[in-house]
Amino acid sequence: MRIEKSPLAIAAIVAALVIAGGWLRLSGTDWDGFAFLNPDERHLVFMLTDMLEVTDRGDGGLLSGILDGAGAAVNPRTIGFFNVYGDLPLLAMLGLLSGSEARGFQELIEAGRTVTALIDTATILAVFFLAHALCRRIWPALGAAAVYALAPTALQLANFYASDTWLVAGYAWCLLGLVALPGGSVRHALAAGVGFGLALACKITGAWLIFPALLAVGLSARESGWRLASTQLLAGLVATLVTLRLASPFLFDGLLPAASAVEDFRELFAMKVMEIPPTWQWEAGYPAAAFLRDFTLFGLGPAGVALLLAGVPWMRGRALILLVAFVGVLLTVLFDFVSALRYAAPALPAGAALAALALSRMPRAVSLLLLVVAGWWGAGAVLLHDGNHPRLDASRWIWAQDGVTVIANESAWDEGLPVAVSLEAGGPQRWPQERFTLLDLDITGAEDADKAARIASMLAEADLVAVSSGRQSEQMPRLPERFPLTTAYYRWLETDACIERVWHADRGYPLPGLRLDDAFAQEPWRVYDHPIVSLYAPLDCYDAAALEARLLEALR
Predict the structure, then answer these.
(1) H or E element at residue 546
(2) b vs e for 190-208, b when ≥16 Cβ sit within 10 Å of the residue's Cβ?
(3) Residue 238 and residue 207: Cα distance in Å, rounded?
């Protein structure tokens, strides 16, 4: 009996693939030893902590939050937070944890990461259904689901309790309703609308779905007439708005946009992004070719992109809905000021599903080879989250050094060293304040004489100087006219004979059997889970006055 004709066998194989993808995701939830090394996670956990406190006091909860909207006591904006993300990732965790005793930061972040990993596991299933809707064949659809399951950015984001993975899930399930719209019924429009609303309830960039949605309605009109298509459009719109109101209630005051939410978004769009250190990479220059390179290598993966491109000649009909979804996201991110890979994550389900078009037509041996390559390449993202984080390793090394008590860190815009770390397996986290004095060089501060004096004097006090990523050391010297003093400082750090690099870690992208140096890739891909970390020790010959004079010279 052919497996394709056995529903039970098909279900078992699909379940095995989804379970395997889930295991890959759940195995990496402790990638940083729960040391809070992702600032987006910290923001969500801080908000969730205060929301749970409100619930514990009996002042509000999940139901009152949904009903009361912006006026709810559990609304993070009511509590005092600035928030431009959707409410769904917070409300879901509030509902799950309200009846539990989990209140510690580590417990909350572990719970958030676990749920996020499970949500992305469900997205693997959505991609299978999407691919099957295109080619009506089981094996190519399984291959497409595997492409998503092994996509580097999907694997990376699945281990972060942040809005991106939740957004991707809403995007994928909405697309599943949209591809069924031509020749389908109103229920498919309702399903698409629910997915659209859930995506918007995670992040405002769920609005990108409007483009494939309009195309799906147009294709439905061509196939079944405008009467059904207009009914589908209205049903989808109502389902979207109702879902958004229920899943992201703090955006609304009754049925109207809440003034507090509008004000947060107005403030977001008014920000002078050039003054924010994490955006200096983009100011220094990140060409379109670099983004496409990074997306190919670390977004969908080389095998996935090869299969996607190979399927272009067969992209017609329903496949165009996914193509518009994929290209629309990519172009929006490509021409945005901040072209971060995680912003392009909503393109991954559509891109992976489109791979089924090529998989259904190429020789089985070739498709299997490409899927093996996808597995090998995706394993690099899994290995990144094996717990051997450079900042954790550096922190343990610092704790092991007798006589080290004063450490100079670059700025508050990056993680200082040491981070909270367990010094032995299963042991308690040790916090730096227990032993160390941490100095802040404020390397991102104004380029003036005070900065030169501050750096020179602090290095005279420090036992170690920490560079915990390339956020400052790699990006600021790319803008030497704007940061002449800082550029001179980092040049001195690498070349002067009176300061010595005593510890260094650069994991790169750890493919099985091969380390790929990914220092060329965009900073957001590397900075959280595999930054380049260096520690320096001033030697006896270090002269603070000489360094200050050298830095002042750079200002002239």
Answers:
(1) helix 544-555
(2) bbbbbbbbbbbbbbbbbeb
(3) 15
Dist CA 203 CA 197 (whole Å): 10
Amino acid identity of residue 40, one-letter, is: D
CA distance to 121, 350, 404, per residue, from 206 (Å): 20, 14, 49
Long-range CB pairs of 364-371 (<8 Å, 24+ gap) are 364/139, 367/140, 367/143, 370/303, 370/306, 370/307, 371/143, 371/146, 371/147, 371/303
3-state secondary structure of 340: coil
Determine whether 266 is exposed, middle or buried from the number of CB atoms within 10 Å of its CB (0-12, 13-18, 19+).
Answer: exposed
Strands 406-409, 464-467: pairing kind: parallel
Number of alpha carbons in the 13 Å side-chain half-sphere of residue 179: 30
Distances (CA, A) of 156 to 151, 179, 332: 9, 27, 21
SS (H, E, C) 344-407: HCCHHHHHHHHHHHHHCCCCHHHHHHHHHHHHHHHHHHHHHCCCCCHHHHHHHHHHCCCCCCEE
| DSSP string across 409-421 | ES-TTS--SSPSE
The tokens for 509 are: 């992208």
Spell out the residues 6+ positions from residue 16 whose beta carbon is closer than 8 angstroms to its own.
Answer: none
> Which has more confidence, 483 or 9?
483
| Residues facing 503 on adjacent strands | 535
Q: What tens digit of pLDDT does each residue of 63-114 get? A: 888 999 999 999 999 999 999 999 999 999 999 999 899 999 999 999 999 9
pTM: 0.95
| DSSP sequence for 289-317 | HHHHHHIIIIIS-HHHHHHHHHTGGG--T
List 409's β-bridge partners, or say none: 440
Q: Are 488 and 451 in contact (CB under 8 A)?
A: no
Could you give the CA distance from residue 380 to residue 508 in angstroms, rounded to a whole number?
A: 9
For strands 437-440 and 429-430, give the pairing. Answer: unpaired
* Residue 537 identity (one-letter amino acid): A
CA distance 488 to 510: 32
| Long-range pairs, 140-144, Cβ under 8 A, ≥24 | 140/356, 140/357, 140/359, 140/360, 140/367, 141/356, 142/13, 142/14, 142/17, 143/307, 143/355, 143/356, 143/359, 143/367, 143/371, 144/352, 144/353, 144/354, 144/355, 144/356, 144/359
C-alpha angle 72-76-82 in degrees, rounded to nearest 5: 135
Q: Give the pairing of strands 514-516 and 509-511.
A: antiparallel
Map residue 183 onto helix, strand or coil: coil
Whole-angstrom CA distances from 50 to 60, 89, 322, 531 are 12, 15, 39, 30
Tell me the pLDDT tens digit for each residue of 182-200.
Answer: 999 999 999 999 999 999 9
